[in-house]
Amino acid sequence: MSQKLILASNSPRRRELLAKTGFSYQVVVSEIDETLNENFTPEENVKSLAEQKAEAVSMNDPDAVIIGADTMVCIDNISLGKPKNEQEAKQMLKRLSGHVHTVMTGVCIKSSDVNLSFVEKTDVAFYDLTDDEINDYISTGDSFDKAGAYGIQGQGALFVKSINGDFFSVMGLPVARVYRELKSILN
């Protein structure tokens, strides 16, 4: 691999997933304003945020291949980001309880000669959750750095009745598709 590969994310889950590709990479955290554009659909927002993250990092290293990603949970056309506090986490989990929601991960792979963006969508069905289950989960602290207030790879897996789509996209990076795209770019 002749080009440097950079992941524009501080997410431990994205680092773990990108490591599965076998490509060597560096992490450079993009500092962007993640405020959602109210004129955009959730899909447009998640794609735009991934593109902004990649663009911000590429400005300092234009010859590298940059991966920007963003994940969002949507239900009833409402976007659920990372909860700001315990009350917001409870509200999000109550909203998801007993329903199907969509997890969207936007990805942007950017270099001097590549600018590829896509959104991977996965439908996740939750069991009906009791208040005790929600409170116990929130007390673990796992809710606060995850869109929709849960992580499918941890104790949040206990809420999941079924998924239709890419499990790893729900974790934050559709790693199989990213691997295939990188393989065509870097080899």
Fold topology:
Layout: E1 5-7, H1 12-19, E2 26-27, H2 42-58, E3 65-75, E4 78-80, H3 86-96, E5 100-110, E6 115-126, H4 131-139, E7 160-164, H5 167-171, H6 175-186
Parallel strand pairs: 1-2, 1-3
Antiparallel strand pairs: 3-4, 3-5, 5-6, 6-7
3D structure, described in words:
By secondary structure, the chain is an alpha/beta fold. The protein has a single domain, classed as Maf protein. It has helices at residues 12-19, 42-58, 86-96, 131-139, 167-171, 175-186; strands spanning 5-7, 26-27, 65-75, 78-80, 100-110, 115-126, 160-164. Strands 1, 2, 3, 4, 5, 6 and 7 form a seven-stranded mixed sheet that branches. β5 (100-110) and β6 form a beta hairpin. α3 (86-96) packs across α4. The chain is elongated. The relative contact order is 0.19.
